[in-house]
Design the sequence.
């Protein structure tokens, strides 16, 4: 029996808990303040260096096999990266709800900027998601959706630009899926003619899928040593198992060959 437990560290992380703790059946309640999101360890499975603070309360009943949660809180001063699009979100804030075997992230927002230091104005984006907890608090399935307007976009080293639309990342049976529909306001494709598309070394595995649809009326430029050509049209970037595949129709009305 935990009559009353108070923990506080030098960083200001604090937790007060009470209840019954056992392997067969536990009933615990806790209030926490300025606790690091390291307590949500599953975030490291699909985000790059997630950080932030969380304040709220949670109640737990059950054991490692069945464990209905209740409660909620807020994550603030958050930051994380999304490797597939080399993007970083800062000043992240979202409400969190614990509901049985699900953790819901509601009304989230953050500042989106390139992760590799490319100069571009950060823009606010909105989003949310749901994580389903399996036995022993494992995570095999989750889904997050984001919407944005005139945000910096990139799929290095193939394309860089600004666009509006939506993007989702999900995990289904431990396979990551990245999907999006984006209208490109302006963009640059800095590829030399004959360049072979090759994935970043860190992404060469079979644990992720991609389906990204890009449309642009104009102002997308192919720029290299031999040409400076403006394009418009639609491009679809997909990946199932194996290499990334590009398809679509692009048209040009102006440009220069050197």
Sequence:
């Amino acid at each position: 029996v935990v009559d009353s437990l108070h923990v506080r560290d030098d960083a200001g992380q604090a937790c007060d808990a009470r209840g019954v703790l056992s392997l067969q059946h536990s009933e615990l309640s806790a209030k926490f303040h300025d606790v690091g999101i390291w307590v949500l360890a599953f975030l490291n499975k699909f985000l790059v260096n997630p950080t932030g603070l969380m304040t709220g309360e949670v109640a737990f009943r059950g054991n490692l096999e069945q464990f209905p949660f209740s409660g909620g809180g807020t994550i603030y001063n958050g930051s994380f990266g999304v490797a597939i699009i080399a993007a970083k979100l800062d000043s992240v804030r979202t409400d969190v709800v614990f509901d049985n075997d699900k953790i819901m992230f509601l009304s989230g927002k953050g500042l989106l900027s390139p992760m590799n230091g490319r100069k571009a104005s950060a823009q606010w984006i909105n989003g949310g998601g749901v994580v389903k907890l399996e036995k022993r608090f494992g995570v095999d399935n989750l889904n997050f959706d984001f919407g944005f307007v005139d945000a910096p976009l990139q799929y290095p080293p193939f394309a860089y630009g600004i666009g509006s639309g939506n993007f989702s990342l999900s995990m289904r049976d431990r396979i990551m899926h990245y999907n999006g529909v984006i209208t490109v306001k302006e963009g640059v494709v800095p590829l030399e003619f004959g360049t072979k598309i090759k994935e970043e070394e860190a992404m060469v595995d079979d644990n992720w899928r991609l389906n990204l649809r890009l449309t642009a009326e104009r102002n997308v430029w192919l720029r290299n040593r031999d040409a400076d050509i403006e394009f418009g049209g639609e491009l679809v970037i997909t990946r199932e198992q194996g290499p990334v595949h590009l398809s679509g129709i692009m048209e040009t009305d102006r440009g220069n060959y050197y």
About this structure: The two ends are 78 Å apart (CA to CA). The chain is about 0% helix and 70% strand. The chain has a mean pLDDT of 88.
